[in-house]
Design goal:
By secondary structure, the protein is α/β, with parallel strands linked by helices. The chain is 44% helix and 15% strand. It contains 19 helices and 15 strands. Helix 1 packs across helix 2, helix 7 packs across helix 16 and helix 12 crosses helix 17. It is globular. The protein starts with 10 loop residues before the first strand and ends in a 10-residue tail after the last helix. Bound molecules: uridine-5'-diphosphate. Uridine-5'-diphosphate binds next to helix 1, helix 14 and helix 15. InterPro entries: UDP_glucos_trans, UDP_glycos_trans_CS. GO terms for molecular function: UDP-glucosyltransferase activity. This is Glycosyltransferase.
Length: 476
């Protein structure tokens, strides 16, 4: 049988996200954009472990029924991990007691490398897009002679700050406070107590050794793809790519906006409820897919929202939420509580949403920027305090809700103040609206992110033509 004409052969890209919903989502979006940018030229496949297939499918479904043709799904086994029942393979679907086991497994080169090696050899792609957390994939891809691009689920500002901080001696911070990206300005300061565990570790050598592996994967890989857009992080993008071979700023990949939700599901319940509320009146609260909020804190939040007098739509991960006695009756239809999961990318752009109380996960920040909704920040873990500074001090599109532990009075006061017409919330809203227009422009034909996505595809095609491989076909 004759082999297919080289010109007709597709560029097959294999994308490998980490085991968390907030990583699988942007990888699915990126795969969709890669396939859609060059229909018939690029074939994008996202590889996940079996229990993550439904998560991937629902992330792809946001782009409409055509996604099935455009993006393929591959699976590979989740390693066996002590203490984790079979089928538990996603950081976002487990309680705090098990989440660390998923992280430990996912970050364990010894466990994961053989699985990824088998996957890459079986799929035999022309290029790999790997989650940065699976840093060994740069090496595996090199061993089979294909380029590996690492994809970052967080932005240039927090990545650069983290990279700097793990080499800083935070024990010598003056007054317990460090300055983020000092040499670039603005003078963004953060207490050591709010830094991610890696930057406060009692074992800095261990952390630096892990950091060194990541940076070595960075410098050896073909390039970096970041879910951000140039107008959002301009000088931080420039700074971040110094010393890197190639960088592509292709976000926000959650654009274009999601399709209308099917009637009758939880999502449309939220939208129906929002439809009945006045424009910009509702405070939307959601703390991402990973954070766990304690029962006493949930209770303070509930009382604070009640006392604020403002309508609210609150997504609570804990199904066993115990609300203060009589709270539901007192709040009535002014508040809606969703247990589990809500369609955030459909909720944020609704005209009734006036503010977003967020934990500052990177996806949530991009989504609020895209929707033009100002933020009240309540960071909890990881790099979220760093991203919070980016939101409140660099972009100035939000304010801190209150300190780490929230008393109900502070919640009520902060929410009421932020929603006051003509106040700080409105000033933040006009800035975030400008950014929203820039985000949409970046992703539209001729925009910076659109251009970077095409440049990525062109570079990978070019690499296939002239790179280390033996093939000489062209595809443009
Ligand atoms: N998300 C959602 N509904 C929920 C909770 C989360 O759609 O009820 C989505 C949200 O839109 C975002 C992602 O999950 O895309 C959370 O990612 P982020 O980076 O904000 O936070 P993380 O989960 O990593 O803490």
């Amino acid at each position: 049988m004759a082999s297919p004409s080289p010109q007709r052969e597709k560029l097959r890209i294999l994308l490998i996200p980490f085991f968390a919903t907030s990583h699988i989502g942007p990888f699915a979006d990126l795969a969709f954009h890669l396939a859609a940018a060059r229909p018939g030229v690029v074939e994008a496949t996202v590889a996940v472990t079996p229990a993550n297939v439904p998560v991937l499918r629902s992330a792809l479904a946001r782009h409409g029924p055509g996604h099935h043709a455009a993006v393929q799904i591959a699976t590979y086994p989740f390693p066996s991990v002590d203490g984790l029942p079979p089928g538990v393979e996603n950081h976002s679907t487990v309680g705090p007691a098990d989440a660390w086991r998923i992280d430990a497994a996912g970050g364990d080169e010894r466990l994961m490398r053989p699985e990824h090696e088998g996957l890459i050899r079986d799929c035999s792609p022309n290029a790999v897009v790997s989650d940065i957390l699976f840093y060994w994939n740069a090496d595996i891809a090199a061993s089979v002679g294909v380029p590996c691009v690492t994809f970052h689920a967080i932005g240039a500002f927090p990545m650069q700050a983290l990279a700097t901080l793990i080499y800083a001696d935070t024990t010598k911070a003056s007054g317990g406070v460090v300055t983020l990206l000092e040499f670039l300005g603005p003078d963004v300061r953060i207490p050591v107590t709010e830094l991610p565990a890696e930057a406060r570790s009692q074992q800095p050598d261990v952390v630096r050794a892990a950091g060194a592996k990541l940076s070595s994967a960075h410098s050896s890989c073909f390039g970096l793809v970041v879910n951000t857009f140039f107008d959002l992080e301009d000088r931080f993008c420039d700074m971040y790519v110094r010393g890197m071979k190639r960088a592509y700023f292709v976000g926000p990949v959650s654009l274009p906006p999601p399709l209308q939700l099917a009637a009758g599901d939880d999502g449309s319940r939220c939208i129906d409820w929002l439809d009945r509320k006045p424009a910009r009146s509702v405070v939307y609260l959601c703390f991402g897919s990973l954070s766990h909020v304690s029962e006493p804190q949930l209770c303070e939040l509930a009382l604070g929202l009640e006392a604020s007098g403002k309508p609210f739509l609150w997504v609570v991960r804990s199904e066993a939420l115990v609300l203060p006695e009589g709270w539901k009756e007192r709040v009535g239809d002014r508040g809606m509580v969703v247990a589990g999961w809500a369609p955030q990318t459909a909720i944020l752009p609704h005209p009734a949403v006036g503010a977003f109380v967020t934990h500052c996960g990177w996806n949530s920040i991009l989504e609020t920027v895209v929707a033009g909704v100002p933020a009240l920040t309540w960071p909890m873990v990881f790099e979220q305090f760093i991203t919070e500074r980016f939101v409140t001090e660099v972009l100035k599109i939000g304010e801190r809700l209150c300190r780490r532990l929230i008393p109900s009075e502070a919640v009520a006061q902060a929410v009421a103040r932020f929603m006051e017409p003509g106040g700080v919330g409105d000033a933040a809203r006009s800035r975030v609206k400008e950014l929203a227009a820039k985000a949409h422009a970046a992703m539209a034909e001729g925009g910076s992110s659109h251009g970077d996505l095409r440049r990525l595809i062109d570079d990978l095609i070019q690499e296939r033509t002239t790179g280390a491989g033996t093939r000489s076909d062209t595809l443009v």
